[in-house]
Amino acid sequence: MFSHYQFTAAERLMRYVQIDTQSDPQSDAQPTTEKQKDLSRLLAAELLELGLADAHMDEWGYVYAALPANTDKKVPVICFCSHVDTAPDASGTGVKPLLHKQYNGGPIHLPDDAAIVLNPDDLPYLKECIGHDIITASGTTLLGGDDKAGVAEIMDAIAFLVAHPQVKHGTIKVLFTPDEEVGRGTAKVDLQKLGAEFGYTLDGGDRGSLEDETFSADGVTVTVNGIITHPGDAKNKMVNALKIGGAIMAALPADSLSPETTEGREGFIHPVRISGGAEQCTLEFIIRDFVTAGLKEKEDLLESVVRQVLQQHPKASYTFTVTEQYRNMKEVLDQHPQVVAFARQAIERAGLPVKTESIRGGTDGSRLSFMGLPCPNLFTGMQAIHSKREFISVQDMNKAVETIVHLVQVWEEAGE
Hints:
The structure is a single chain. With 416 residues, the protein is an alpha+beta fold. The protein is 29% helix and 22% strand. The chain is built from ten helices and 17 strands. It has helices at 9-16, 36-49, 145-163, 191-194, 241-251, 292-310, 330-333, 337-349, 364-371, 394-413, and strands at residues 56-57, 63-67, 78-83, 98-100, 108-109, 117-118, 134-136, 172-177, 198-204, 209-214, 216-225, 268-276, 280-289, 317-326, 355-359, 377-379, 391-393. The strands form four sheets. It has an eight-stranded mixed beta sheet with strand order 1-2-8-3-9-16-10-15, with helices on both faces. Strands 12-13-11-14 form a four-stranded antiparallel beta sheet. Strand 5 and strand 6 (117-118) form a beta hairpin. Helix 3 crosses helix 10 (394-413). The radius of gyration is 23 Å and the shape is globular. The two termini are 24 Å apart. The model has no long low-confidence stretch (mean pLDDT 96).
């Protein structure tokens, strides 16, 4: 079916990454950066060119489109979703994508920064890509494959289906979201307008990976209120909130319960930001656990640390605010086993072994699942994301496209 098809996913990715779409965690706007809409507008236009007549970008930067069914069977409406924004962790401005053909297994030196080297000893997945064509950035930026690879693969799969009407499928919805990297990817999504029953995010890594479980996640904000006076007349009067904040940080476990000391199914307490001054200091944390009940345990531990530190400063006070972020999507997906089972079949039809994985993080699919759109995560091929060493195999991208096409066929075959 694909032997004579000229895949476009890699070409699309190399175009899309040159559009700066970095989101901003400090912005209250929606989307957090207007520049994300630059890519969203382009995608809506390209979907219109492919013949998806309802393709459009809404005021919030979301792209919606539908490919009508070409079968007489009754098939559930499924959606494929990826996010257009890139992470704030490394620059996304002026990305220069490079194609390294027929990778030979050695180090890849990036031309714009001699210190940035992709070494298979550090990035072992490279060893699985010998002979592949590898896409990287040039050394001064991230690539942006997270998640423009997913965007490009969905676009290519839609192009394939439009060009091959003999491949039968039900109605397919396309959804591209902003602000996933800052936790707001579903903030303004309109699921009623989308009109899908089940979904799949394209936001995973290794070829063949199928992720049906994420962390459950909360955010915690601790605000410490001190007492400010003129520093020249501060003895026995001033209570420095910044010092109390530092003491709270220092009192956290040093050898456990942090991202840098955990792996697998272990959760963590992760300080992500400290701000303020001597009068008031704010500490922001993210709390993660695969078991939702484990979040409360970690939050109670964190608050006990705060209370213990504050006991040494009786004139100070604090507030402790917990905000729900997302929940383990497996809680929802286990109620709809066919969604994951069909994805497994599609990956196998693409000739790949299935790697069922748990995400030490979250995706739009986590929130979408709890909003009523059960939504596991499929691989894109992206590697070393959020870094200047980010890379992706063209062959992996093409396998992701094949998987999408096989998946819509599996759903159609199961229709009535």
